[in-house]
Design a protein that fits this description.
By secondary structure, the chain is mainly alpha-helical. It has one domain: Cytochrome p450 (Orthogonal Bundle). 57% of the residues lie in helices and 5% in strands. A hairpin with a 2-residue loop joins strand 4 and strand 5. Helix 7 crosses helix 13, helix 14 runs parallel beside helix 19 and helix 16 crosses helix 18. The longest helix is centred in the first third of the chain and has 36 residues. It is globular, with a radius of gyration of 25 Å. The two termini are 45 Å apart. Its cofactor is heme b.
């Protein structure tokens, strides 16, 4: 009761401050207009318009959505613990496209694969922007990451340089790095020799070593202090950034003036992240690898010449730093999460394990699988892709922003509207998948027979995570390659209680 009372008092205080601020703004506007047109009464409708915009947002009039509270909007919906599941349940009531309000920010949620394709594939240039976010700017050093940066010439130049750096790591060298780490992971699994273990840390180390080898030319063992510090820091940032106490700062600027322990922790972890990665980059500059074929060496070479042709965009050390952050977060946690979920499902489905094992033995005999073998291993491919459907590594894609007036599914979408693709909802659409919450790898084999493609055929394409018509599939390659090797290493079973 005490906490509720404090919350109510705090909200009333914020509301009062907001009204005072809006009144002052309206007074200033009316004073300026009075000098020009001698009509001071215009301040009243302006004030009402400002209050209406703040309390109700500016949703598309044709879009339905759950009722919103004054000032808070749909903050309670957005603060749900299992947000992708909650947004999917709202789609059952309001349709596969609906709106939510948070303060004066309007968000449009997309829950169907065809609607998502329309927005992010057919009309990608309309929705290529990223939201302007107070917390996002802090995490990304002012929007200088590829994942969170807005769609502009600077972002295009950074993306072009990063893509070129990845191209220098040819497909053969990329797969050789992955195969080496996967072989090591297989040996780690064999060394457990039937013991009951938690494999999450081993999966994280294997995935992280692929990225650090490509970026810095070095790898770490499970007990490396540097690796542990970096992983703890990055995981803490991802966890804190999803906190409602932090996301509220984007929609309610007045809250930034109040004490906020989660936000203070986020600031501390971001500073620690920059210190750790900055240390790695400085060590790399002094090492013999700086002229080698790593991603970081290619990125550093790009700093010597302006990018972007006639526009001459000059990238800085900050761009290199934040591109490295993108690679570490995006390349490590996605693969580790996929492997963890796959093991969790296989533990309870030994018949699926047997089918994978029989296929590997029949096709490969005694050698390890390679990524080039994927077309000869349909059931293993189906298993991996079924896991990506059931447990997508990004259940909610990074939000997009409409950079011009557009439409989705016949609904008008004003400029600057935030678009949130609910990939979890699209992958669990009962109109697309029979029994969408069940683990059925055979579904994906059927998709290949019917559509001629392996996965995400009626579901969501890889380009949903990228802005632009030209994309690179190296992230999917790493996920698949590590999974190929790891799933052939050992039989999995639930430990018995002693």
């Amino acid at each position: 009761m005490c906490i509720s009372a404090v919350s109510v008092v705090l909200l009333l205080f914020i509301l009062w401050m907001l009204v005072v601020q809006l009144c002052r703004q309206a007074d200033r506007q009316s004073a300026g207009d009075a000098k020009a047109s001698k009509q001071p009464e215009a301040a009243v409708p302006r004030l009402l318009h400002s209050l209406s915009k703040c309390f109700c947002g500016t949703p598309s009039p044709s879009l339905s959505g759950p009722p919103s509270l004054p000032l808070l909007g749909n903050m309670l919906d957005l603060a749900q613990e299992h947000l992708p599941i909650h947004l999917t349940s709202l789609a059952l009531r309001y349709g596969n496209i609906y709106r939510l309000n948070c303060g004066n920010t309007t968000m449009v949620i997309l829950n169907n694969s065809e609607i998502i394709r329309e927005a992010l594939v057919k009309k990608w240039s309309d929705f290529a922007g990223r939201p302007h976010s107070y917390t996002g700017d802090i995490v990304s050093s002012g929007g200088r990451t590829i994942s969170l940066g807005d769609f502009n010439e600077e972002w295009k130049a950074q993306r072009r340089v990063a893509h070129s750096a990845l191209q220098h790591c040819t497909t053969d060298s990329l797969h050789s790095v992955i195969e080496k780490q996967a072989h090591h992971l297989c040996q780690v699994l064999r060394d457990y020799n039937g013991k009951a273990v938690d494999l999450s840390e081993d999966f994280t180390v294997a995935a992280s070593n692929v990225i650090t080898t490509l970026t810095f030319g070095k790898s770490h063992d499970k007990f490396s202090v540097d690796l542990q510090k970096l992983q703890v820091c990055l995981n803490e940032i991802v966890s804190l950034w999803g906190s409602p106490w932090i996301s509220a700062l984007d929609s309610f600027p007045l809250l930034r003036k109040l004490p906020n322990p989660p936000f203070s922790r986020l600031m501390k972890e971001v500073a620690r992240r920059d210190e750790l990665i900055g240390k790695h980059i400085e060590e790399f500059k002094k090492s013999d690898c700086k002229e080698g074929g790593t991603v970081t060496s290619s990125l550093l070479q790009s700093l010597k010449s302006p990018q972007g042709g006639a526009n001459q965009i000059t990238l800085t050390d900050t761009h290199v730093h934040m591109t490295t952050v993108d690679l570490l977060i995006g390349g490590t946690e996605t693969t580790a999460a996929l492997l963890n979920w796959t093991v969790a499902f296989l533990l309870h489905r030994p018949e699926v394990q047997n089918k994978v094992y029989e296929e590997l033995c029949g096709v490969l005999d005694v050698r390890y699988p390679q990524y080039s073998d994927r077309h000869r291993l349909p059931y293993l491919c189906a298993l991996i892709n079924e896991m990506l459907r059931l447990r997508p590594v990004a259940p909610l894609a990074v939000p997009h922003r409409a950079i011009r007036n557009s439409s989705i599914a016949g609904h008008f979408i004003p400029k600057n509207t935030i678009i949130i693709p609910n990939l979890y909802g699209a992958h669990h659409d009962p109109e697309v998948w029979d029994d969408p919450y069940s683990f059925k790898p055979v579904n994906l084999i059927y998709c290949r027979t019917l559509f001629g493609r392996w996965w995400r055929v009626p579901s969501c394409p890889d380009s949903f995570w990228r802005r632009g018509p030209t994309v690179s599939g190296r992230g999917s390659s790493q996920n698949g390659d590590v999974s190929f090797h790891s799933l052939s290493a050992a039989r999995l079973s639930v430990p018995t209680c002693q």
